[in-house]
């Protein structure tokens, strides 16, 4: 039985514990927002003792000492609890700092944890019924199919019929065309995903692309298009194995497409059309088509830089899970790799020399860099990003599937940004006023890969000085180093106004 006096002290102890816990909780939310980014730091609050709970802290600390001496039965357990809370709090604070680079500027930006689901995020849930499904491989497939479909407009649908809705296959071909060449995708956006839990899945995508149409009369015309693609697949179909991920073959058995008789495979004898075994194209809807490249020299105002970072709620935990699988993975080494890629990107872009960025980017992103660089070359001008530096990096999302780990960060950077003609005339932008911007960068690495990121420019396979050809292979050992088998490569760049999480 506790005496009346003991109960009084126990009550006081519990009240002070509650206050201490509240003070501790307040430390995790400087500036009022839930932030993994280390956004605005009003100096003192991130150090012990200061902040909102500071005044109460002093009094409570004295009370705690008093309780330990006068009423150890209450005071000592309380002291232990407070110590545990302090340790946990320190760990959380440490964790938060570890997921962001030095927060010196862009202080107004906070993070926003995404609750609603975006189409790309929804699609990822397909892994529950199709464990081999990988967003990275799906996007590779879409690029491959898109290029094949545009070529089919000239050379005929033929065996590609296995991947097309029958009426679409009939309407696609343009008899005036001899060929469609140089198909490069500049952007891929998710519009919607539906059908999870039903018999048929549907994904709608928007693609921005550029290609050259070669007519039978010899005329060549370059087009800039925005297309909507509707893809469909049976919910019971399974993703193809990794070894077949980068070719269009029989959706069922993998026999070469030449084996197709319409939508029936001459090899496995299966009816393979209608999305029974793989994604098929249900609709191709052209949104815009202009006989030119995109505008290169207009001053576009930066939008969205001040908006909060869209952070997936599970990102910090998933990053920790990645670290458990690969103890060499640290935020420091990862952002070091990103900084390396960032610098290479500025040089490659400004010099219009795509090979300089090749070691750091996936095939698809490299294709889209080529698209832009070709446009600048054709227009005889260059976009220069001078004095570029990273201001801050926020962790936004982490996904892992059977084949790839992917880390999306929001990268804040600043640089002079201007476009000059080849004869040195300033066409747009400013050579003296830096421009601050932010983008979402997604980095991927093969999920089997472990170990530290390379900060140097040596081949991760043979150790020679890294010189990579257009296909992403080391010039010495010929091993491909840009599909994420060895190190993190940049696979997507999305602007603030198009990133949806
Ligand atoms: Zn087959
Ligand atoms: Zn090599």
Describe this structure in words.
With 501 residues, the protein is an alpha+beta fold. Helices cover 30% and strands 28% of the residues. The protein contains nine helices and twelve strands. The chain has a four-stranded antiparallel beta sheet with strand order 2-3-4-7. It has a four-stranded antiparallel beta sheet with strand order 9-10-11-12. A two-stranded parallel sheet has the order 1-8. Strand 9 and strand 10 form a beta hairpin. Helix 1 packs antiparallel against helix 2 and helix 1 runs parallel beside helix 3. The termini are far apart. About 12% of the residues have low confidence. Bound molecules: zinc ion (2 copies). The site of one zinc ion (ZN) has 8 residues, from loops. One zinc ion binds next to loops.
Instruction: Give Rg in angstroms.
Output: 28 Å
Binned strand content:
25-35%
User: What is the strand arrangement across the widest sheet?
Assistant: 2-3-4-7
Number of strands: 12
In terms of structural class, how would the helical and strand content be classed?
Answer: alpha+beta
Percent of residues in helices comes to 25-40%
Question: Which secondary structure elements does this structure contain, and how are they paired or packed?
Answer:
Elements: H1 4-27, H2 54-70, H3 72-98, E1 111-114, H4 119-124, H5 135-155, H6 166-172, E2 177-194, E3 200-215, E4 220-234, E5 260-261, E6 264-265, E7 280-290, E8 309-312, H7 315-325, H8 331-351, H9 363-378, E9 381-400, E10 404-421, E11 426-446, E12 489-495
Parallel strand pairs: 1-8
Antiparallel strand pairs: 2-3, 3-4, 4-7, 5-6, 9-10, 10-11, 11-12
Helix pairs in contact: 1-2, 1-3, 2-3
The structure holds zinc ion (2 copies).
